[in-house]
Amino acid sequence: MELAYMLSGGAPVVKRYMAGTTISTAGIPVLGAVDAGTDFASVEPMVATGTPTVSGSQLGLAIDTSGTVAATGITNDADLFVSVIINPDLVIRAKMNNGTTSNTALATTAPTSADSTGATLTGATTFDNGAVWGYTGTNVGSFRRSDDASGSLAINFVNGTATTDTYLAVHGFPCGVEITNFESYDLTTDLTQIAAQTAIIVQDNFATVDMELRDSTQSGSSNSYYHLIANAHLFGSSAIT
After folding, report:
1. Which residue segment(s) compose the domain that 7 sits in?
2. What are phi and psi of 220, to 5 degrees?
3. Entry pTM
4. Looking at residue 74, what is its pLDDT?
5. What is the predicted pLDDT for the residue at 37?
6. Contacts of 206 (CB under 8 A, 6+ apart)
7. What is the Cα–Cα distance from 98 to 106, expressed in whole angstroms?
8. 3-class DSSP state of 236
9. Count of CB atoms within 10 A of residue 173's CB?
10. What is the CA radius of gyration of the chain?
């Protein structure tokens, strides 16, 4: 993950914080120390999946790494610290990934029957309240919000859909808010990318500002991105609350 921009247009504010656990990868989202019993200092990595993010705990994006952090045996103070962009209005650019192993290309999907009205992608794999866009074929350059996991669209494509088309579909949509929860995302195991084709609504971690949705001529299956902002930031949320 990387800095995309500040929602307010300002400059990034970077602080050096003591890591509560070893942070060995740059470009990961971090939280304020949630559990004093297991976290020794100020910041810790976000959990990849399965555990909701504690409300108001998001701190920002780590842009470098710490040394080894432990309760004993520390010989260099500098090893304990990590640099974090802490602006509440930080927008993070995060790569869309298929599954939990980073740099796995998104899977394409295709309708099993044509629809001249462009209103459905019958037989295609989509995500409820997710984005779907033309990868090859008649609807390259267009995207829509999907209504369910089986190809229903909120608004029809301008062109009809054909069985020779291919599409990319992911979880999430710009400004999307689930009926019972914030929009949220699972992360890859190394915390650097988004598991975009896994529809999990437990994290309460990010709201979607924008999406970079690329087609086959732009290698979109491995070159598409979310623009994400913290749902509830430790220093004041700029997202939906």
Report:
1. 2-92
2. -60, -25
3. 0.91
4. 80
5. 52
6. 92, 183, 184, 185, 226, 228, 229, 230, 231, 239
7. 5
8. coil
9. 20
10. 19
Length of the chain, please? 241
Residue 220 forms part of a structural domain:
no
Q: Which residues of 104-138 are buried (b: 16+ CB within 10 A; e: fewer)?
A: bbbebbbbeebbeebbbbeebbbbebbbbbbbbbb
- Hey, how many other C-beta atoms are within 10 angstroms of the C-beta on 46? 19
List phi, psi (to 5°) of 77: -55, -40
Residue 170 lies in a domain: no
pLDDT of residue 164: 97
The number of domains in the chain is 1
Instruction: Report the distance separating Cα 88 and Cα 130, nearest Å.
Output: 25
Question: Among 178, 118, 176, 177, which residue's Cα sits nearest to residue 152?
Answer: 118
45, part of any domain: yes
Q: What are phi and psi of 216, to 5 degrees?
A: -65, -30
pLDDT mean by block of 10 residues, the chain; 241 residues: 96 94 93 67 80 74 91 83 96 97 98 96 92 97 93 95 97 77 80 88 78 98 96 70 42
What is the pLDDT at residue 45?
86
DSSP per-residue letters across 58-104: EEEEE-S------SS----GGGGEEEEE--TTEEEEEEEESSSSTTP
Residue 233 lies in a domain: no
8 Å CB contact between 133 and 77: no
Q: Contact, 215 vs 65, CB < 8 A? A: no
Residue 209: exposure state from Cβ atoms within 10 A (0-12, 13-18, ≥19): buried
